[in-house]
Amino acid sequence: MARVLNLLMLLLTAGTVFAARNKQSRPAEKDFEQESSDQCPEPYGYFADVEQCDKYYECKDGQITEKLCPDGMVFNDFSTQDEKCDLPFNIDCTTRPKLQTPQPSQNCPRKHGYFAHEEANVCDKFYYCTDGKFNLIVCPDGLVYNEKVGICSWPDEAKKKGCSSRDVFQFDCPKVNESVGLTHPRYPDPEDCQYFYVCIDGVTPRRNGCKLGQAFDERTSKCDWARKIPECADWYKDRLTDEQLDALENPPTPRPRPTGPINRRKPARKPVVHEDD
Ligand SMILES: *[C@@H]1O[C@H](CO)[C@@H](O)[C@H](O)[C@H]1NC(C)=O
After folding, report:
1. Element holding 207 (H helix, E strand)
2. Cβ of 179 less than 6 Å from ligand 1
3. 33 pLDDT above the threshold of 50
4. pLDDT (tens digit, 9 = 90+) per residue, 184-207?
5. Does CATH place domain 40-100 in 2.60.120?
6. Ordered alpha helix ranges (H), the chain
7. Bigger pLDDT: 20 or 27?
8. Mean pLDDT to the nearest integer, 224-251
9. Do the domains 102-163 and 171-249 sit in the same CATH topology, yes or no?
10. CB neighbours of 171 closer than 8 A, spacing ≥ 6?
11. Domain spans, the chain
12. How far is the CA of 168 from the centre of ligand 1 (A)?
């Protein structure tokens, strides 16, 4: 009797071992692809879901926990050591394009991120949302919201529908031959002395501005004090007094820098590069 029982035990054990072997012998990669939702590819780390960009798994001692990034953010899968969700701009979600159901609020289609204005023809405004609360951001003059990178760009770079250079500027670059085109010729904005257009390769207009008090001088293709340019001499009359213009043209000479410790304050981020020449 004992012998029969022993044999039975042996058979059972062998069966178990065989089953375990069988499981182990499956290729690891296949395991990950097919069973990542209920099995850790490694005992420790953070692993992207194979289908959903904002879903990931935490593995601790082989124990798996499913997790979700905040709405609007996606899992950053650059390292399995880091638990990190980011805005989607630098994360490649092409192979795992699914996302959680959006939780819209106010003007935010999702809780976090940068979003185009709801009106397609509004090109230079966009929303920055955190936790469902929005800030309306206005691009600097001449720029439009670029949906691909979440910042303001030239219209020809942003390629936003309804927001091409032509739509935004109502300015056509005059036809020039190739050699002139290569110089990126500049033309005054017919509506505004302070602004001018740079025609990239002679074809694509970008609107750029001179600083306050200055105007674009067609003869030199540069910015200069408006009062020195005959066609624009009175341009600031309604906005600035002669004294204010004097002050702009002759700023008080800055005092020599103190030789004490250097002020290490971070410089404020400049929103736009205006021509200073
Ligand atoms: C291009 O146009 C400019 C100005 O109209 C002219 O001076 C130049 O000779 C032209 N160049 C060529 C290669 O046609």
Report:
1. strand 204-209
2. yes
3. no
4. 999 999 999 999 999 999 999 999
5. no
6. 2-24, 28-35, 155-158, 165-169, 178-181, 242-249
7. 27
8. 95
9. yes
10. 165, 187, 189, 190, 197, 205, 207
11. 40-100, 102-163, 171-249
12. 29
Dist. CA 168–CA 232, nearest whole Å: 24
Please state the rounded mean pLDDT for residues 97-108. Answer: 94
Q: Probe ligand 1: pick from 175, 177, 182, max atoms within 8 Å of CB?
A: 177
Q: Which residue has the higher pLDDT, 78 or 34?
A: 78
How many CB atoms are located within 10 Å of the residue 239 CB?
10
pLDDT at residue 155 tops 80: yes
Q: Are 114 and 108 in contact (CB under 8 A)?
A: no
Q: What is the best residue among 175, 176, 178, 180 to mutate for testing ligand 1's pocket, by most ligand atoms within 8 Å of CB?
A: 180
Distance 179 CA to ligand 1 centre (A): 7
- Residue from 156, 71, 49 nearest 115 by CA: 71
The listed range with the strongest mean pLDDT (25-29, 162-166, 199-203) is: 199-203
Inform me whether the pLDDT recorded for 15 exceeds 50. no
Q: What is the pLDDT of residue 39?
A: 87
Q: Is 175 near ligand 1, meaning CB less than 6 Å away?
A: no
Q: Check pocket membership of 182 for ligand 1, CB cut-off 6 A.
A: no
Alpha-carbon Rg for the chain, nearest whole angstrom, is: 31
CATH 1.10.287 matches 171-249: no
CATH fold for the domain made of 102-163: Antimicrobial Protein, Tachycitin; Chain A (2.170.140)
Size (the chain), residues = 277
